[in-house]
Design a protein that fits this description.
The chain is globular. Strand 4 and strand 5 form a beta hairpin. It contains four helices and seven strands, in the order H-H-E-E-E-E-E-H-E-H-E. The chain is 25% helix and 18% strand. The protein has a five-stranded mixed β-sheet, with helices on one face. The chain has a two-stranded antiparallel ribbon with strand order 4-5. It is of the alpha/beta class.
Length: 187
């Protein structure tokens, strides 16, 4: 994946949208139940122009087991028999944030202060969501010839283990990630 370089304006634009949704991505049931599709929509909007359905190289799957709580799998094809490399673990939910408990910046809005980024999910994990989305956007745009197939998995319900059957646990149960096992797989 040589030649890929962070497009900072596109990354920050997507991150701003994602953090703008973070109030609805808080996952601490029963008080807060995330609606990961609010974040998934932005990821899908960024990648859809490069999807197979629009003549691009990326296979996009939006997988939901519970309404409003979708997961995404994006696949960029490599050479036949060239192996597979996957990135799993970018999650579309966040832990709760109470703005009245010591936040110096609004947690539900991306704030850039000098060279620091602030907002709920900036490092766990909406920043990673935006970064992986940018990698796949660039793959779709530049269409490099790769030996390995590259797969990205954005998951719902990572911040909660009380309610199951929504995210990676259900995708594993349904066999949706079995093809990733030859690896390598990066979490």
């Amino acid at each position: 994946m040589e030649g890929l370089e962070l497009d900072e304006p596109k990354f920050l634009s997507l991150l701003e949208k994602l953090i703008g949704e973070s109030k609805h991505l808080q996952n601490n049931p029963p008080e807060c139940v995330a609606c990961e599709d609010r974040a998934a929509r932005h990821v899908l909007d960024a990648l859809r122009p490069y999807s197979e359905e629009n003549g691009g190289p990326i296979k996009l799957e939006h997988i939901s087991y519970v309404d409003g709580r979708g997961n995404i799998i994006a696949t960029y094809p490599g050479e036949p028999g060239g192996g597979i490399m996957s990135f799993v673990g970018c999650h579309l939910d966040v832990v709760t944030a109470d703005p009245s408990t010591g936040w110096t910046h609004d947690p539900f809005k991306l704030t850039i202060d000098d060279d620091k980024l602030y907002g709920r999910g900036t490092t766990d994990c909406l920043g990673h969501v935006a970064l992986l989305t940018e990698v796949f956007r660039q793959l779709g745009e530049t269409k490099p010839k790769l030996k390995q197939t590259v797969v990205g998995v954005w998951i719902a319900n990572e911040e909660n283990s009380k309610v199951l059957g929504i995210g990676v646990d259900e995708m594993v149960k349904q066999g949706k990630l079995q093809h990733l096992l030859p690896g390598p797989l990066y979490w």
